[in-house]
Amino acid sequence: xxxxxxxxxxxxxxxxxxxxxxxxxxxxxxxxxxxxxxxxxxxxxxxxxxxxxxxxxxxxxxxxxxxxxxxxxxxxxxxxxxxxxxxxxxxxxxxxxxxxxxxxxxxxxxxxxxxxxxxxxxxxxxxxxxxxxxxxxxxxxxxxxxxxxxxxxxxxxxxxxxxxxxxxxxxxxxxxxxxxxxxxxxxxxxxxxxxxxxxxxxxxxxxxxxxxxxxxxxxxxxxxxxxxxxxxxxxxxxxxxxxxxxxxxxxxxxxxxxxxxxxxxxxxxxxxxxxxxxxxxxxxxxxxxxxxxxxxxxxxxxxxxxxxxxxxxxxxxxxxxxxxxxxxxxxxxxxxxxxxxxxxxxxxxxxxxxxxxxxxxxxxxxxxxxxxxxxxxxxxxxxxxx
Length: 386
Ligand SMILES: *[C@@H]1O[C@H](CO)[C@@H](O)[C@H](O)[C@H]1NC(C)=O
Ligand SMILES: *[C@@H]1O[C@H](CO)[C@@H](O)[C@H](O)[C@H]1NC(C)=O
Ligand SMILES: *[C@@H]1O[C@H](CO)[C@@H](O)[C@H](O)[C@H]1NC(C)=O
Fold this sequence. Notes:
This protein is 38% helix and 15% strand. By secondary structure, the chain is an alpha/beta fold. Helix 2 runs antiparallel to helix 7, helix 4 (88-105) crosses helix 12 and helix 7 crosses helix 11 (308-318). Residues 61-66 have low confidence and may be disordered. The chain crosses the membrane at residues 10-27.
């Protein structure tokens, strides 16, 4: 056979295979449930993040300050129950509460170093995200007999049980038996120190930039946080409600554009949504998803779920307003507590939801007084501030 013909045949076969391949891709694309825009978004952001990871020469971390204050001779520990079964938000509450109680009672804060679970969680989950907080703790072995156990915050997740009542306790080593400690009142008096020890690394801030297209970087940014996933099925927490989320976001956009609290108005408002279910967010804001075409009422930037520290870095760098839509989400709480200096937080009224945490929560212990509660009329769809 003429070799030239064979080559032509070869090309034809390759061409046909290619066409069939394209055909299959077309077919396969239809039944996939994920909209193409989400697939592309995830791919682009992932590429951007991985580029930054590779640019190790860019990393110039803050000079380490490891001078810890060791002037107190007495110590305090917490039981750290959230280290067994809690999410990141719960763990952060226990750790920050421990630091806050140490400050209040003028005791050094210890972590029981013989409990391998404590060490594992701190080393694998906490330290890679918040390298600075390790300096706050001492890892020690205190014999069980040498420590005094005391009840504090037993039973209710989000109610403040004032540790000051134990300020004159003479025992050298105190361990508070209790759980959750989900109240800002344990540590709000050292808020700046808390913010500082929970500051993500510079590289994480660079990754967070991947989430926000350049054209929005100077806008006024409103950041709703949504929580679905486990909250939908645990029959305890109230997951984010789509109607509330859309109504509250519309409300905040109008409110910020018009100017509020005697502040100036913000004509360029952009919404960046965080949480653990980007597909849900897409369904809620489909008509507003950020594209360069078509002027819209406002633009919504979707963020794929990457890593909690990237979300924390984003809110800290960009969010002028945060919105908590799942009222008992502790991670949503932390995103707001650590968001940009001067930012304003709004949250859904837990009493008008089915959230069972409401039974344990003292609202004034859980939500800082400067945060603003939103009321939702589920008949008219109207949002109001309290
Ligand atoms: C980052 O580096 C890894 C291997 O070192 C490489 O596989 C990957 O393609 C790089 N990513 C980018 C976006 O350059
Ligand atoms: C520290 O942890 C170990 C292992 O879990 C435990 O046996 C011990 O009682 C703890 N020490 C104190 C003082 O609680
Ligand atoms: C609407 O809100 C009321 C009062 O908060 C509540 O009792 C009712 O169950 C809600 N209805 C729906 C459909 O969510």
